[in-house]
Design brief:
With 445 residues, the chain is of the alpha/beta class. The strands form three sheets. The chain has a seven-stranded parallel beta sheet, sandwiched between helices. It has a five-stranded antiparallel beta sheet with strand order 8-9-15-11-12, covered by helices on one side. Strands 10-14-13 form a three-stranded antiparallel beta sheet, with no helix packed on it.
Length: 445
């Protein structure tokens, strides 16, 4: 049975059918710590980052962790049993050995793409740690690779100038204080009555706190972002309120992201696989995978560079950041298909990045369908960004209402001045002939 499951898993990718979640709300709580506010401003200037999911699920190239969860939407190999699948999955720990691991390649690929910050998965819901933990042997340090991967990843990205973030799952499906083997595991939640087994819960809380201390306690240098996933367990349930001062003592100004929970420990909000329809004034970040899954899969379907740019432009015009999910391969590299797409995105940003990085929103952030607006911090320069989703013919003109130019309008990438007419509050710009139907930015005062 195990051989059959392995053969099926290695041959197929089971996609997680995840619903897009816009969890942005208006009850955001601004931090009172000035160093956190400053780091949030610095982070908002970066606009574009990468989130890396890598772990046991990368070995066969399947959806990250979720096939362990016994919920109705989860798809496992036909003919498998739940317990059999779990044991097969846990057994992948003996196979996780990325022989070509090259974090410098990662940092260079994403740097070429124009990404400015990284969020690396230290532990996903399956409980497998990519750091050497004193509290479990279920880690890469105790497997065939025999090493901690967090340190070299952060060293590589830090040397390339990235802001550094740690992903950490609060739920841990491998730890018996969360999913206790005495009971079945009906869903993603802990599988017992806490009132009946308070010692189990206390063990889980202590375990989780100790692991957060391990990854934020100085071993990996200063951490800029702690990205806590698994919102069905709140930070308050694991004692995060009392832990935050300790974390910030070691990492001054660190941004805490207790995802989907709200309150003072969700320093920015994180809509997943989507972005809000409106402009939002408080800090937020859309997290969207480059393919259908967060981790690497052999039959990936990557979004095009045009699609990524269109998402980035719309998100920035609405006041947010975009973090794109990319999964390294089982061998420890970024695959060639992802590199090609991200390289196109980076080329566009090198030509048009002034309209993205360090910008702020404008009261009129969209008009004319695919035309979006940003401005310089001092408000002296406005950018009109054309970001189409489709492959139709390029327009001959761009028109919009509001954001009226008071000086010349130029192509940002070339500096070429464009013929512009203003009628009332309606602006029309004549575009160069034979322009391809690709994203571009205009600049004006």
């Amino acid at each position: 049975m195990k051989k059959a499951l392995t053969a099926i898993a290695l041959g197929l990718c089971f996609f997680c059918v995840a619903q897009a979640q816009d969890n942005t709300t208006d009850d955001y709580v601004w931090p009172e710590d000035q160093s956190v506010l400053q780091k949030l401003q610095d982070w908002q200037d970066l606009k574009f980052g990468v989130i890396l999911h890598w772990g046991l699920y990368s070995v066969p190239g399947i959806v990250e962790s979720w096939n362990l969860c016994n919920e109705s939407w989860v798809v496992r190999p036909e003919g498998s049993t739940y317990e059999g699948y779990k044991q097969w999955y846990w057994g992948l720990a003996k196979d996780f050995n990325p022989v070509a691991f090259d974090p410098v390649q990662w940092a260079e690929v994403f740097g070429d793409a124009g990404m400015k910050y990284v969020i690396f998965t230290t532990k996903h819901h399956d409980g497998y740690c990519l750091f050497d933990s004193d509290y479990t042997d279920f880690s890469s340090a105790k497997g065939p690779a025999g090493r901690d991967y967090v340190e070299p990843v952060f060293d590589a990205f830090r040397s390339h100038g990235y802001m550094i973030g740690e992903y950490f799952s609060k739920p841990d499906w491998h730890y018996p204080g969360y999913w206790n083997p005495y009971y079945a595991t009906p869903d993603r939640n802990f599988n017992y009555d806490r009132k009946m087994h308070p010692d189990w819960w206390e063990s889980y809380v202590s375990y989780t706190q100790n692991q957060i201390r391990e990854i934020t306690g100085g071993r990996y240098g200063n951490i800029d972002i702690l990205w806590l996933d698994g919102g069905w367990v709140s930070g308050s349930e694991i004692g995060l309120d009392s832990l935050v001062p300790e974390i910030r003592e070691k990492n001054p100004g660190i941004i805490i992201v207790d995802r989907t929970i709200g309150g003072p420990n969700e320093n920015y909000q994180t809509p997943e696989r989507t972005f809000p329809a409106r402009q939002i004034s408080h800090p937020w970040e859309s997290c969207i995978p480059l393919s259908d899954d967060w981790g690497w899969t052999p039959d990936h379907r990557y979004k095009s560079a045009k699609h990524v740019i269109a998402m980035l432009v719309q998100i920035v015009a609405k006041g947010g950041n975009l973090v794109v999910g990319v999964g390294p391969t089982p061998q420890g590299l970024i695959d060639d298909d992802a590199i090609a797409i991200l390289s196109e995105v980076g080329a566009w940003l090198r030509a048009n990045g002034d309209a993205i990085y360090g910008t702020r929103t404008t009261p009129v952030f969209n008009d004319g369908g695919s035309v979006w607006f940003t401005s310089s911090k001092d408000g002296s320069t406005t950018y009109a960004i054309y970001a189409p989703w489709d492959d139709g013919p390029a327009p001959e003109t761009l028109s919009w209402t509001g954001n009226i130019p008071h000086g010349k309008v130029t192509m940002l990438s070339t500096g070429k001045r464009l013929r512009t007419t203003v009628s009332g509050d309606r602006v029309t710009v004549r575009l160069p002939r034979n322009l391809p139907n690709e994203p571009f930015a205009l600049k004006y005062n």
